[in-house]
Amino acid sequence: MSLLSKTLDRVKPSPTIAMTTKALELKAAGRDVIGLSAGEPDFDTPQNIKDAAIAAINAGQTKYTAVDGTPALKQAICAKFKRENGLTYEPSQVTVGTGGKQILYNAFMATLNPGDEVIIPAPYWVSYPDMVLLAGGTPFVVEATLENRFKLTPEQLEAAITPNTKWFLFNSPSNPTGAGYTRDEVKALTDVLMRYPQVWVMTDDMYEHLVFDDFVFATPAEVEPQLYDRTLTVNGVSKAYAMTGWRIGYGAGPVQLIKAMAKVQSQSTSNPSSVSQAAAVEALNGPQDFIEGNKAVFQRRRDLVVGMLNAAEGVTCPVPEGAFYVYPDISACIGKTSKGGTLIDSDEAFATALLEENGVAVVFGAAFGLSPNFRVSYATADEVLKDACTRIQAFCAELN
User: Fold this and answer.
1) Are 317 and 309 contacting, i.e. CB atoms less than 8 angstroms apart?
2) Which of 217, 171, 221 is nearest to 193 (CA)?
């Protein structure tokens, strides 16, 4: 009898974590390494949010809470959805988990049966397909190519829907590409979904507030109110509020689904941290003005990175609408050999050689379901980004 579950054979470890770990190992060995693989803002959590957590600790709010969130946090989430998205939810329609990832995972665990399909546009966040597989479902991956600016077309969505489709998983702005769907583009997709009442919509809005230029964020249930009763709208405080380590994500949807998700959570982690929940209440209810300042910094960094990468030989880097990632294409680099003698026959080989030879850690595109590309997270200081992009330029110039 094998010790390990056969379910584990269906999934793989997170490539983003693997690349970050490899970069840290090289650093520990004394190498000069720049890590651009982790999707984490370099800003500190705002002081008012930290103060709220300290106050909660001093007030003794260190006990178990309701399994899927305190009443105060659920009220704050309802207020956020009404204020920012025009969506009306009751606390009974809201669930809080240990990060946005748990919300997605709980939903899949609560709803998927063998044979159920989940449509996932690629490039996708690395965890999406594996969470579906762990829950017993089948990922149905549809490639959104560079030619369409990494956005799924309505025709592609309609062609992917089968009698077995249970969920359409939507992420805008996207991790890993930063691509954001305009309101009209969202409407074109929801028009398709209106013709298929058996398909539910799971929308990951984690990067909602990190959008640039004149881009205006829109979420499916807001754009098409008739989808409200079959949409799970997922968000969290990790990215916009620089609270990745606090681990608070949330979602809102039909009561039946939310109750089922709470049932799953009750037998896994139970409640998220009580102190983190108190901090999240302040994040959602407190001052929001710092977000605009952070956005301006991210936009400056985006422009810096896009400009420098497009100056690298064999690299094509589109300008993303949001998040803090770029997803350059390296088709022109495939088939060449690095200065250190590595044949660049894939984007994984490119990323590995770039790290080992020039000390820059990025994540290869195959991890996100679309090659040949790599992902850069520009959530770090300008001077570090300049150094990293200069090294990437040098690496590409030395390919032959």
Assistant:
1) yes
2) 221
Separation between Cα atoms, residue 356 and residue 360, nearest integer Å = 8
- The first and second tokens of residue 308, run together, are 């420098």
The set of residues, in sequence order, having a beta carbon less than 8 Å from that of 268 and lying 6+ positions away, is: none
At residue 122, the 3 state secondary structure works out as: strand
Q: How many CB atoms sit inside 10 A of residue 27's CB?
A: 15
How is residue 313 written in tokens? 């030989």
User: pTM for the whole thing?
Assistant: 0.96
Q: How far is CA 383 from its chain centroid?
A: 25
62 C-beta neighbours (distance < 10 Å), count: 12
Mean pLDDT for back-to-back runs of 10 residues, the chain (400 residues): 87 77 87 90 97 98 98 98 98 98 98 98 96 96 96 98 98 98 98 98 98 98 98 98 98 98 98 98 98 97 98 98 98 98 97 96 96 97 98 98
Domain 6-44+290-397: which CATH class?
A: alpha beta
CATH (one of 3.30.1480.10, 3.40.190.10, 3.30.420.100, 3.40.640.10) for 63-285? 3.40.640.10
- Structural contact between residues 317 and 362, judged by C-beta atoms closer than 8 angstroms: no
Q: Between the CA atoms of 332, 335, 338 and 339, what dihedral angle is there, to the nearest 10 degrees?
A: -100
